[in-house]
Amino acid sequence: MDQRRNITSEEDEALILDSVREFLKRDVAPFAHDLEARDEYPQEIADKMAELGLFGTTISSEYGGLGLSSVTFAKIMEEISSVWMSVGGIIGAHLVMARAVEHFGSEDMKQEYLPKFATGELRGGIGLTEPDAGTDLQGIRTRADKDGDDYVINGSKMWITNSVKGNILAVLVKTDPKAEPAYRGMSLLMVPREAGYVPSKLEKLGYRGVDTGGIEFSDVRVPQKNLIGGEEGKGLQQILNGLEQGRINVAARGVGLSRVCLEESIAYSQTRKTFGKPICEHQSIQIKLADMATRVEAARLLTERAALAYDEGHRADLEAGMAKLFATEAAMENAAEAMRLHGAYGYSKEFNIERYYRDAPLLAIGEGTNELQRIVIARQLIKKFPV
Ligand SMILES: Cc1cc2nc3c(=O)[nH]c(=O)nc-3n(C[C@H](O)[C@H](O)[C@H](O)COP(=O)(O)OP(=O)(O)OC[C@H]3O[C@@H](n4cnc5c(N)ncnc54)[C@H](O)[C@@H]3O)c2cc1C
């Protein structure tokens, strides 16, 4: 049982959700369409998120964060993703990194990083995936070799969120490439940008605006104190622990995306007329709306249940896996249904529907693919119900 989880009162939750909705309406909604079309990083939006304290959403208040619960964080992510999913990515990966430091770092490390993570002075993410290893992280090749009091890092990461605009990463490396099994030789290192890694940006179908890219390490040197937990060989376990929270927040993004697809479909179906009546009066459109709404509710309940289990201090891999799987598949289904329901307008760059349709598939890939979630769920079930 982990006693260091956050609790948020109903009043505090209502206040923060009000300010997030206001921020989204004023500072994000009017600009999302154009920024996304140009694949331009939403710098002003990110800076306003910092002013609102969102870079420290789940960081404990003793380190300067808002100290919000996972349940409240999920609701914030739902709201953000119902307006522009990419904006959630700026803080999502950052908070998984913060979680690894807060949960496993020494007190000195927490004092060094968490207050700066909370203000957004330091912004970053997690460097796990490589050109030849994603789901099977034990296959990574990036290595960190000890040299005096330092580690020297060499290798390449790929698909890293906040690659260019971030200034620090928690990087999964091999400190003992010969270890068997491989995870025993894997460690997590904090690597600031000034240590000399070279980021790049990749072109993507969706989830545009936020930068995702490669990271090159060529003799990048960091002090040994940057090893999270101070002990080699714990890195995979540390990051998997953080991904439990990460999966809940990806599920919440799925809820937000599913919801906006539903909301825009309900509205459009009442104004678009065919054969002398609004399309919402055709039974096949009603079936679509009913199925979309049911998916939103079910996805939200699963997400809240996973977040609650996490807040109660249990390992919530089963709940988080189910929530991530269902809510992200729901987002893809709702985006496809919203596109059909909008006819040609759904396919048009003038409307937001095509953006939702392009954004949704990422949710089935990031923080562990949905194929992997099914493996996680099945393993947990077998563990839970042994014969
Ligand atoms: C926009 C974006 C942002 C990202 N951000 C980050 C980030 O910030 N940090 C980071 O480290 N990574 C990030 N990623 C990478 C992401 O986590 C990986 O893409 C993901 O884990 C899958 O790895 P892969 O792409 O190498 O696919 P692979 O592992 O090569 O998998 C290929 C296919 O095989 C399936 N598969 C693999 N193993 C099994 C199995 N045992 N059983 C059944 N099916 C299997 C997979 O589900 C998938 O369908 C991001 C990716 C994208 C697209």
Q: How does the SSE layout of this entry go?
A:
Blueprint: H1 10-38, H2 43-51, H3 70-81, H4 85-104, H5 107-119, E1 124-127, E2 143-147, E3 150-161, E4 168-174, E5 186-192, E6 198-199, E7 212-223, H6 235-271, E8 273-274, E9 277-278, H7 283-311, H8 317-341, H9 343-346, H10 353-363, H11 370-384
| First-to-last CA distance | 25 Å
Taken from the alpha-carbon principal axes, the silhouette is globular
Helix content: 40-55%
Please trace the helix and strand order, writing H or E for each element: HHHHHEEEEEEEHEEHHHHH
| Averaged pLDDT | 96
Total count of domains: 3
Rg from Cα:
21 Å
Write up what this structure looks like:
With 387 residues, this protein is α+β, with helices and mostly antiparallel strands. The chain folds into 3 domains: 10-123, Orthogonal Bundle (Butyryl-Coa Dehydrogenase, subunit A, domain 1); 125-231, Butyryl-CoA Dehydrogenase, subunit A, domain 2, CATH 2.40.110; 237-384, Butyryl-CoA Dehydrogenase, subunit A, domain 3, CATH 1.20.140. The chain has 11 helices and 9 strands. The chain has helices at 10-38, 43-51, 70-81, 85-104, 107-119, 235-271, 283-311, 317-341, 343-346, 353-363, 370-384, and strands spanning 124-127, 143-147, 150-161, 168-174, 186-192, 198-199, 212-223, 273-274, 277-278. It has a 4-stranded antiparallel β-sheet, covered by helices on one side. A 3-stranded mixed β-sheet has the order 1-4-5. Helix 1 (10-38) packs parallel to helix 3. The protein is globular. The chain starts with 9 loop residues before the first helix and ends with a helix. 51% of the residues are buried. The model has no long low-confidence stretch (mean pLDDT 96). The structure holds flavin-adenine dinucleotide (FAD). Flavin-adenine dinucleotide (FAD) binds next to strand 1, strand 3 and helix 11.
